[in-house]
């Protein structure tokens, strides 16, 4: 039995990982450590909660005593660190928690993993650590690290720490850097769920700047399959980029959602740009394809429809979220 600590497993990507992997593998025991911040939601894990190979612990990755207790009690041998403050706009409104969780939290996990001699520590990172591209070129694993937002800089700091622990202590680490994910259970502060939900509620769709910024989209299950491959077969000390070669301008995504939902484009509202807004991300995934044999299984056309449909069919999931804290955030962010 592989005893794996998954942190942040009640968030978007982590919960999809747990739901997916518990169906695929019966030799994995998953301990999910999640603080249940505004972004964590146990409803995402309904299909996993009764599984005998799953255990949930509410707690903070910066809590060293708790993390030590978990490693000892569950004989943790693998770590997948999804836990993070993950939203760029929130990091612009207030950065402190980003450095606390994303940097200090990763340090606590690394120190504990070192003490308990884990077999692999997988840091879930992002293509945002590379900064922004112009019209040409792609991020490769050797592109210089040049983060632009507080969020991206906290993730870059964590990446540097993870690699330093490998260099100095020989720790068995791997890092994955993925592009923009979409799929079920994504918190509606992010572009795709926000636009779907606002459309369904006949609200304005706030597009930053000129709407021509480019993101490279990947379905969350493709990301999670890549993560698991890197966990099982990735070479120690290596970084793997993950992306599905699907660049889109934001405005085209918004129009596609409106079209699918049979809504007019009148609801599009161009709003003040995000400060320091990265223009373009595009990932070169040649390394993981050639070395580990990974490739994405979902086409964008198929998976975006599946995703929109999921939000249409699961209104009660997001209706419970877009009250309270979310409303306050929305009003501050969009200056209503
Ligand atoms: P998310 O915001 O949906 O979920 C984050 C989860 O971490 C939540 O469940 C939250 O409760 C938990 N968490 C936050 N602080 C914690 C703490 N101190 N201790 C324990 N748990 C804590 O994020 P996501 O979109 O699922 O992203 C997961 C990871 O993937 C992050 O590390 C992010 O940087 C990375 N990533 C995300 C994307 C993307 O497109 N969403 C792309 C590439 C990489
Ligand atoms: O690239 C990977 C990253 O993708 C992850 O590391 C982050 O955790 C994840 O949040 C995501 O970051 P982005 O900033 O690219 O995602 P977001 O959904 O916030 O924005 C996508 C694009 O849409 C971006 O160019 C900003 C724009 N946007 C976003 C929102 C929320 C809008 O135009 N209007 C909006 O209301």
What does this molecule look like?
- The chain has helices at 12-24, 64-74, 88-93, 96-115, 150-169, 191-200, 220-233, 250-260, 286-292, 300-313, 315-321, 325-334, and strands at residues 2-7, 28-34, 54-58, 78-81, 120-126, 173-178, 180-182, 205-208, 214-219, 239-242, 247-249, 268-271.
- Helix 5 links the parallel strand 5 (120-126) and strand 6 (173-178).
- The termini are far apart.
- The radius of gyration is 19 Å and the shape is globular.
- The protein has two domains: 2-181 and 217-242, NAD(P)-binding Rossmann-like Domain (Rossmann fold, 3-Layer(aba) Sandwich), CATH 3.40.50.720; 183-215 and 246-278 and 300-326, UDP-galactose 4-epimerase, domain 1, CATH 3.90.25.10.
- By secondary structure, it is α/β, with parallel strands linked by helices.
- The mean pLDDT is 98.
- It has a seven-stranded parallel sheet with strand order 3-2-1-4-5-6-10, sandwiched between helices.
- It is built from twelve helices and twelve strands.
- 46% of the residues are buried.
- Bound molecules: nicotinamide-adenine-dinucleotide and 2'deoxy-thymidine-5'-diphospho-alpha-D-glucose (DAU).
- Residues 7-8, 10-14, 33-37, 39-40, 60-62, 82-86, 101, 105, 124, 126, 155, 178, 180-181, 187 line the site of nicotinamide-adenine-dinucleotide.
């Amino acid at each position: 039995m592989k005893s794996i600590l998954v942190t942040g497993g009640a968030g978007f990507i982590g919960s999809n990982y747990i739901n997916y992997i518990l169906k695929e593998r019966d030799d994995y025991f998953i301990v999910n450590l999640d603080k249940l911040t505004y972004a964590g939601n146990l409803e995402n894990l309904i299909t996993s909660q009764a599984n005998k190979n799953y255990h949930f612990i509410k707690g903070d990755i910066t809590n060293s005593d708790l993390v030590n207790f978990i490693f000892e009690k569950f004989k943790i041998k693998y770590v997948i660190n999804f836990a993070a403050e993950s939203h760029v706009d929130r990091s612009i409104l207030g950065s402190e928690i980003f450095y606390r969780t994303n940097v200090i939290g990763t340090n606590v996990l690394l120190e504990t993993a070192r003490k308990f001699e884990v077999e692999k520590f997988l840091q879930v990172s992002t293509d945002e650590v590379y900064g922004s591209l112009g019209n040409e070129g792609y991020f490769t694993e050797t592109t210089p690290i040049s983060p632009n937002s507080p969020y991206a800089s906290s993730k870059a700091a964590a990446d540097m720490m993870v690699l330093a622990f490998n260099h100095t202590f020989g720790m068995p680490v791997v890092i994955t850097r993925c592009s923009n994910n979409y799929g079920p259970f994504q918190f509606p502060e992010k572009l795709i769920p926000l636009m779907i939900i606002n459309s369904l509620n006949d609200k304005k769709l706030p597009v930053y700047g000129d709407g021509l910024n480019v993101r490279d989209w990947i379905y969350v299950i493709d990301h999670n399959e890549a993560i698991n491959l890197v966990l099982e077969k990735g070479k120690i000390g290596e970084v793997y980029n993950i992306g599905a070669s699907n660049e889109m301008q934001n405005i085209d995504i918004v129009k596609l959602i409106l079209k699918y939902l049979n809504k007019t484009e009148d609801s599009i509202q161009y709003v003040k740009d995000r400060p320091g807004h990265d223009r373009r991300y595009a990932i070169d995934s040649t390394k993981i394809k050639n070395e580990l044999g990974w490739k994405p299984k979902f086409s964008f056309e198929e998976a975006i429809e599946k995703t929109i449909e999921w939000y249409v069919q699961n209104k009660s999931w997001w209706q419970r979220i877009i009250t309270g804290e979310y409303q306050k955030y929305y009003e501050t962010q969009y200056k209503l």
